[in-house]
Amino acid sequence: MGKQKKYNYAIIINSGKKQKNAYLKYNFAGTDITLYIQKNAAYVGFCLSSKKEFDEILSFKSNYLVDIMRKIFLSHAIEYSRGMKINSFAVMINDELEVKTKTDIGFPYMFSMINPVDLNVQNWRENERFKEKLLQMKKSAAKKNACVSSVYSFLASKGRQFEIDRFTNLWTSMNAYYNYLSKKYDNTLTEGKNSSKRIKRNDCKGICAALIKIEAMHDERIGRNATGNRKVYAKLLGKLAKGYSEADITELYSQLESNKTELSIDSENEIVKILNDIAHKLNVTPYGIMLLKFPYYLRCKYIHGNKCTVLFSAYEGRDIAVLKVASFFLEKYLKDAIPKMVNDSFLTDELRNEIYNFM
């Protein structure tokens, strides 16, 4: 019996090249795939026992091709902290090359929601375990993984034209973050027991678990379902609606984060004074309020199915001003927190016991 013929394939984006060391090697359903990543360029090589046509490759109807592009876009985002912009797309089958450019119908054949802007995630490339988990995970598993969901939504928030879209993506990322924590916690409980101690995708309990993790909750008097109503946040909404520069928002974040475990912060800042008052009503620190409680309130106010979203707004409208502050807090925290989700220290025994005692 003769040796089965093999066909060599390569997908080349923006004149990407093979290098001495591959960025990623993996196997998809029996096919060995090698990925090389350069700044705004990529080269992927693989072998198949069957002959494919160029149009068949460019249709991306096969799961392994979709997975290749998913890994290209994610690898580039992590390695270069920037979305990839495709200017040319080439397919090589053995020695035959076909190049497609912007003038061709259907170009670029595969679209990414990661905008070609600075993603400000330079720290992500430093966590090898995070990269391995994210890039080696199968697509079927990734769809069910809250850590991956948090990553995707965070990256989708970058370069958004409208503040409501940015906030929606960032809150979805935070939602996935505390769902991931909740599931890991629930998995530590004995099957069939401790049902009252489970979180089970309960937003209020999940938020409380995240507050405990960042040491922003002070005691059990918080009221497990208390997220704060319109009256609680009325003064804060009014103050934030006046609009603040990025420098002012950065200073506010720094002040609250450096005192994240304090229920009351000594400050002349009027927003901090308002937050101190809310903190004593909810028994959650000002940092915890701005990071989780207040954004959850805005989620219910703007993107809940029963409420109208922000469809129209003045350039300096109050809705935009408020959302901009909330988005800043979410983005600042999640940027550093997301890659740590895969670490063993994400849910320690001590934290697990604290959450258990609270629930």
Summary of the model, kept short:
The chain has helices at 54-59, 63-80, 128-136, 139-142, 146-156, 163-186, 203-213, 230-240, 246-257, 270-282, 286-302, 318-337, 349-358; strands at residues 7-13, 24-28, 31-38, 41-48, 88-93, 96-101. The chain has 359 residues and is α+β, with helices and mostly antiparallel strands.
Commentary on this structure:
The chain has 13 helices and six strands. By secondary structure, the protein is an alpha+beta fold. The chain has a six-stranded antiparallel beta sheet. A hairpin with a 2-residue loop joins strand 3 and strand 4 (41-48). Mean pLDDT is 90; it is low at 221-226.
Low-confidence stretches: 221-226
Q: Calculate the mean pLDDT score and round it.
A: 90
Question: How does the major sheet shape up?
Answer: 6 strands, antiparallel
**In sequence order, what are the helices and strands, one letter per element?**
EEEEHHEEHHHHHHHHHHH
Rg value: 24 Å
Number of helices: 13
Number of strands: 6
Lateral arrangement of strands in the main beta sheet: 2-3-4-1-5-6
